[in-house]
Amino acid sequence: MNKIQFYRKKIFTRQLLAIYVMIFLYQFVFQMIMTPMTSFGLSLGISGVVLGVISNLYEFSCMAARNVAGTLVDDGKYRKAIAIGFLVICVNAVLFLLVRSRVGYGLVRFLTGFTAGYTGAAFTALLPSVMEPGLVGSATAIYSILASLGASYAPKLSAGIFTTYGYPHAYAAAAVLSSVCLLLSLWGIPANIQKADVSSDKAQNAETEEADEGKPAWLRGLSAKVIPACMIGLLVNITKDLNSFYTVQLGLDKGIDVTTGIAIAGTLSIGVLLLTGILIDHGFVKKVMLICLSFLVISNILYGSANSAGMATAAAVFYKIGIGGYWPCLITFCCQLLPGRQGAAIATLYFFMDVVSLVNNVLLGYLYDTLGSSHMYYVVGIVNAAAIVYYLIWLNRRKLSVRKL
User: What is the DSSP string of 336-382?
Assistant: First the structure.
């Protein structure tokens, strides 16, 4: 069987195609909620630092949802996991639609954390859980492509709605779309999706599973074994948080269109991200990670210097490729460290990133208030450069052996 036939047979099954559609729709409707969030808070008179503090409450509710998501996926309850994801997004959008005060914003923002925490862990773990372990790179790269497309086109639509008609209309649109997605998930996702065969991996992981037996129930979907790999994200995910919450605001501050660049970058990055997954599965994960971390440094420098839509588009392209490649690499490392328990590995990774975001949210708010949107990108670029140093040190000490196809 040649490589094209192999990938077609393993990656383009009917059940996987259904999951692909759900992942795209999830990221699209979730970004319909996230895109107006910072601008909406600022419009209510909330400062950047206070928004950061509110975001910390968001991270606590994120953490509460990770274990639930990881457990559902590891138990093979895929349709239920997906349906719950769209349900919580719909409820969250309706609550934002009703917000009229700073207190109301804070309360709903807190609940958004549960939405983000649950959906992020559940939808990211789907493909690594149903594909064979040797394809975890391709699985996560495909997830990144679909999520990137959803996250690329939603900001343009959402920003167009809230700048023209107001924030309530933007959240009403998100509520309608997520309710439609909920119905599609119940109708289009098979009830009997098969998990990947990981019996040999579970045998290797028996010691870790036995140790987990003594944990409280709310922690059994998590594992400390992957924390050293997660530490890479300590110095990288600040860029993800920055782009999620401040890139649209950067465009408003500078008077340039950044949303078109985000959409273009998401489209252009598709081929690169697919190639990234193939390279990871063929043993090049270490080199791919290094290249992607370097791209994130370049992206932050370009965004900080951007004075035109063209520069913002270039920054978006480097960001999309960098973050889209870094994430499959990090998930691959975590899944290799915790074989046979992809749901727990990914839930732990997300849980760790929630803790990191407790610092990121306040730090980014402080940087925005004190340095402005341009200079905060330069600072984050320096932090990403430090991530490269840590990554190289970790690789040298870990001597990680990554499974190849």
Answer: HHSTT-HHHHHHHHHHHHHHHHHHHHHHHHHHHHHHHHHHHHHHHHH
